[in-house]
Amino acid sequence: MLFKKSYGELVQKALSDLRFNTNITNSNVGGITRSLVEVINKNISDYYEILDINMAMAFLSSAEGYYIDLIATLFNMQRIPASQASATTSDGTQKFYVSSGVLMDKIPTGEIPAGTTVSSQDGVISFYTPSTITFSGSATEVYVPITANDLGSKSNVPPNVLTLTNLGIANVFTTNEKTIVSGTDIESDSNFRFRVMNATLSAEKANETSIRMAALSVDGVADVIMRPYTRGIGTYDIIVIPLEGIATDSLVSSVQQAIDSVQAYGLKGTAIKPSIVPVDIEVKLVFTSDATDFQKSSIISQVETSIIRYIVNIPIGNSFILNELRQQIMDVSPKIKDHVINCYLFREEPVFVGNVDIYWDEMFYPNSNSANAINVI
Hints:
Number of domains: 4
Shape: extended
Strand content: 15-25%
Structural class: alpha+beta
Mean pLDDT: 88
Largest sheet: 5 strands, antiparallel
Number of helices: 10
Helix content: 25-40%
Order of helices and strands: HHHEEHEEEEEEEEHHHEEHEEHHEEEE
């Protein structure tokens, strides 16, 4: 607020006005005059604070929460609500399988019924199958669609967490082979503010902003990269970067539907996944002499997690920096004296131990074809 006055300034101005413009001369602390002046100006000072906040909430750049919602109603826009995490059959995520024989030996009906639940070992995170899935007599495994029972990102899980089921059939196992990250919380202030700021351009449609905004409005999309003229004049590709992990077929399909609704007739936009550069790394840790067996086991697990976190967080098109990897390893614990990289594969081919560059539309990810893509010993 312009020309905002503090409580002290208000009191001093009031006392000065009384002294020079009235016959009141006793304004000492504890006196009636001083007490009345302080009470009145305390309320005026509080009003200044409230007015300052209300003025800030009237501008999109500084508005928060409910006040952004009010501004958004001027553009007929609403905050994106929280969504349930889910995976489709085509995503190949949640698998029911047997370790020997075929599924029909254990499930003679030949189906995984709708309403079957899968959950984490502690039961905190749970999903259900929204439809019945049938399988052939020779099938040893079958993928099913699943939907989280709860809203929000709290149901997002890394691989191999959903391993319990209520089927109650011995030797029929289940697991999520891929990360599930499609669950989203209610849209944040910063994201909603950005969409409202671009509401005018988005409403025009058939321009880059409207296409980008349509793609970003899809649950599970962290960012997109647009590349024009990929298939000639009037075409473009939009590379989908998920919040975590690899973009699923269902996520790419949702983005395709979103951009189809805003692009101009005669233009052809195609939503695609980034190309994946599979990574295989084996690291041997050298511990200090005072490290116990328990500490070593814990540190090995932490190092493995740290390496995976570094790999998946490298932005699309950026380089794999060897020194950064080494730093991530050494930062885990002072009990690590040194380390040796025994295996260093990219695209399933050995690479000289050093930095690795990729193309602009590629991203690094642990090799999904290897059970021990990131191995720490």
